[in-house]
Amino acid sequence: MKKIFLIGFMGSGKSSVGKLLAEKLGKEFIDLDEYIVEKAGMSIPEIFDRYGEKFFRKLEKEALREITEDSRDAVVATGGGVVEDPENCEILRKHVTFHLQAPWDEIWKRISKDSNRPLVGRGKEAVKSLYEKREKMYRETGRVINTAEMTVEEIAEKIKSIVTGLEEGGK
Length: 171
Ligand code: S3P
Prior knowledge:
5-stranded parallel beta sheet; alpha/beta; binds shikimate-3-phosphate; Rossmann fold
């Protein structure tokens, strides 16, 4: 098993869980948003401000392709909107993908004051409907990990044990 992908809404813990999981599994950690920022030479808010969300989605789609096509053994944390593109979901379904599910109230507490997430600026109700719309997409794309009341350590351990089981089962 070469790559493990983490999907889920903004603030669901993909990056922190991803880093720890990568360490536990002895794999490299790749953050899709950081990959995009490095390639574009601009921050995410700058990309949204100057070129718009559509352009960001194009960069995100290219980045996902590049990452899935290389042969590195890695844990990859994606951005929350990666599932907006059905072709991205198709790629993710061919890999081992986990959906970090977290309750809305918890998510909003974590992201509401974050200026590095341009979509948060659209306001609580708009972000909540995005959350509700995307939940189904995440569910259909990855194995659900219910993270409510769990620490980053516990979530990473849970995924690690599933991955180990899959490897032993020869997947
Ligand atoms: C987005 C989520 C962000 C980032 C961008 C758009 C989204 O990543 O890709 O701001 O559409 O949900 P995180 O999920 O890591 O915050």
